[in-house]
Design a protein that fits this description.
The complex is a heterodimer of chains A (413) and B (119). Chain A has seven helices and 27 strands. Chain A is of the alpha/beta class and 413 residues long. Chain A folds into three domains: 1-121 and 256-325, FAD/NAD(P)-binding domain; 123-255, FAD/NAD(P)-binding domain (3-Layer(bba) Sandwich), CATH 3.50.50.60; 327-413, no CATH class. In chain A, strands 1, 2, 5, 6, 7, 8 and 19 form a seven-stranded mixed sheet that branches. In chain A, strands 10-17-11-12-13 form a five-stranded parallel sheet. Chain A has a five-stranded mixed sheet with strand order 22-20-27-24-25. Chain A starts with a strand and ends with a strand. Chain B folds into two domains: 2-46, no CATH class; 53-114, Roll (CPE0013-like fold). In chain B, 18% of the residues lie in helices and 38% in strands. Chain B has two helices and ten strands; from the N terminus they run E-E-E-H-E-E-E-E-H-E-E-E. Chain B has helices at 35-46, 79-88; strands at 2-7, 16-22, 25-30, 49-50, 53-59, 65-70, 74-75, 90-92, 100-102, 112-114. In chain B, the strands form three sheets. In chain B, strands 8-5-6-10-9 form a five-stranded mixed sheet. Classes of the chains: A alpha/beta (413), B alpha+beta (119). The A-B interface holds A 45, 48-50, 60, 62, 64-65, 67-68, 147-148, 150-152, 173, 176-178, 194-196, 198-200, 204, 380-381, 383, 386 and B 7, 9, 12-14, 48, 50-55, 57, 63-65, 67, 69, 76, 79, 83, 97, 115-117.
């Protein structure tokens, strides 16, 4: 088995990984990026709608266009790229990373690793919906891949469960390609995605959105024939007598993303709510040589944010590799009321600046985000679909870094 | 006089707007909490425009389709016609990103361009 010694090894060739590898290489680190697929870009490649890059490039790009620009930055940085390369195992001693690729097994001995493998979709099996198990049930990302990368229609008449942004985007894409989208069902009493997407993906085309509804049963033997939709109460329990059958040959699921941590979950402590590794403001996990960025840390809204975190992680990893990353006493960030996702999990007291990202559990108006009683920020409208981003720097960051713990809470009006 | 209800998407506030129209002329906009709301209502009530994103068939390559978009927003009401036109189009592999597939698409002034390379 051939062994490669590198400064920084980046795992994952999506937006976070490309940004991390480019940043590490620009810092002068000998950097290798591993991607298990044939092309770089991750999920961006199949997101052919516009709406990407408004922060990073100050213009509105489609996913593949955003990926193309990142690829150019990566190529300019001098980082080396291996595609078709799948990580089999991470050995904490060393550390060492075992990789299989079309050219056989390889072993990497990196000084630092950036984990940037993204998230996976919650599958059908996790929903425990009664009924048969016919073909014709797809996660939204799989349907998107089939349609927008491979040019294959998943079906003719579709129902979409879940109104997260991917579900809404797929409703529009399927409608445009001639699939009859019968309805989008959302179990919560409010849409899961951005208002902009509700307007531009559903209302523009007259696609019904049924709030407080879910799928009670799946019908069909070989192929899906229909579903039973049902209204739910405030505890998400089906209300008897509200069932109705909707004929469809395709059910698309947009029911959440889960950070991918399988190969590192025995090595690093995870955050139970984010479901990704606990990281500090420099994207360093509690295992000092392991950094993480992007949707494998927590699920973010914008690729612009993911790329920025990737850069931060890559630059931190390069500094760690050359023994130049300061480390202080970690101060944990603790969830107070109305905080679900929260990144980072701690501040290490030596960073000059950090950015905090948090998500509220339900739509709220006129709230104040309070960070350890030091930073307060009024937010007129807070929605679960939109992360709140708070920069921490200067005197406020120094004051927070002196604390034992920092409680982050969202206070109602 | 007719009344149109819209939700402003310029920012997360999501103001519910009411636009009063006389034919194609806007008489009043209400419900907005800032000037961007009025601007949004004025363009949206008369002629909503959107960027169209879809796929064009690729001939003689490994990829079956290539993603395309209009390089500026086109009237939303033209979308059915636009999709019918796109289905007639094809392109020979290889193509680079940013290739113009059709100039002045449906006489809208927008070009239909590829958003990724195809092999």
């Amino acid at each position: 088995m051939r062994t490669y010694t590198v400064d920084v090894l980046v795992v994952g060739g999506g937006a976070a990984g490309m940004a991390a590898a480019a940043a590490a290489a620009r810092e002068g680190a000998r950097t290798v990026l591993l991607e298990r697929g044939e092309r770089l870009g991750g999920v961006l490649e199949q997101c052919i709608h516009p709406g990407f890059g408004l922060h990073r490039y100050r213009e509105e790009l489609t996913g593949p266009e955003f990926a193309h620009r990142m690829r150019q930055e990566l190529d300019d940085s001098g980082a080396e790229v291996f595609t078709g390369a799948t990580v089999l195992e991470i050995l904490p001693d060393g550390p060492a990373v075992k990789v299989v690729s079309p050219k056989g097994l390889k072993k990497f001995r990196p000084r630092a690793v950036v984990w940037a493998v993204g998230a996976r979709e919650r599958p059908f099996g996790a929903l425990r919906i009664p009924g048969t198990r016919p073909s014709g049930v797809f996660t939204a990302g799989l349907a998107q891949r089939l349609l927008d990368l491979e040019g294959l229609l998943p079906g003719r008449r579709a129902v979409i469960l879940g109104s997260g942004d991917i579900g809404l985007i797929m409703a529009r894409r399927l409608h445009l390609e001639g699939v009859e989208v019968r309805a989008v069902l959302e179990i919560q009493p409010f849409p899961g995605g951005l208002t902009r997407n509700v307007v531009q993906c559903l209302r523009d085309f007259g696609i019904p959105l049924l709030l407080s509804h879910t799928v009670a049963e799946v019908h069909g033997r070989e192929r899906l024939e229909g579903i039973t939709a049902v209204r739910v109460d405030e505890h998400r329990h089906p209300i008897p007598g509200t069932e109705r059958r909707i004929e469809a040959d395709t059910l698309i699921l947009s029911v959440g993303l889960i950070p991918e941590v399988r190969l590192i979950e025995d090595t690093v402590p995870l955050d139970p709510v984010n479901r990704g590794p606990r990281v500090n403001g420099r994207l360093q996990t509690e295992v000092p040589w392991l950094f993480a960025a992007g949707n494998c840390v927590a699920v973010f809204d914008l690729v612009d944010t993911v790329a920025e975190l990737g850069e931060r992680a890559g630059a931190s990893a390069a500094r760690y590799a050359r023994g130049d990353l300061p480390s202080g006493k970690p101060v944990p960030l603790v969830r107070g009321e109305n905080v679900v996702s929260l990144v980072p999990s701690c501040l290490d007291g030596t960073a000059e600046s950090a950015r905090m990202y948090l998500r509220v559990p339900r739509p709220m108006e006129g709230v104040t985000v309070d960070v350890g009683g030091v930073v307060r920020r009024r937010v007129p409208v807070a929605r679960p679909a939109e992360m709140i981003e708070i920069p921490l720097d200067g005197d406020a960051l120094s004051e927070l870094s002196q604390k034992e713990r920092i409680v982050v809470e969202v206070k109602p009006k | 006089m007719t009344e149109k209800k819209l939700v402003c998407v310029s920012c997360p506030m999501g103001c519910e707007l009411t636009v009063v129209l006389e034919g194609k002329k806007i008489v009043s906009v209400s419900g907005n909490r800032c000037p961007r709301g009025e601007e949004y209502a004025r363009s949206e009530a008369v002629e909503p425009r959107r960027v169209l994103m879809t796929l064009v068939r690729v001939e003689g390559g490994r990829d079956r389709v290539v993603s395309v978009k209009t390089d500026r927003p086109i009237p939303l009401r033209l979308f059915p016609e636009a999709m019918a036109r796109v289905r007639e189009l094809s392109v020979r592999a290889p193509v680079t990103i940013g290739t113009v597939i059709e100039e002045n698409f449906l006489s809208t002034g927008a070009n239909l361009v590829t958003t990724r390379p195809a092999r």
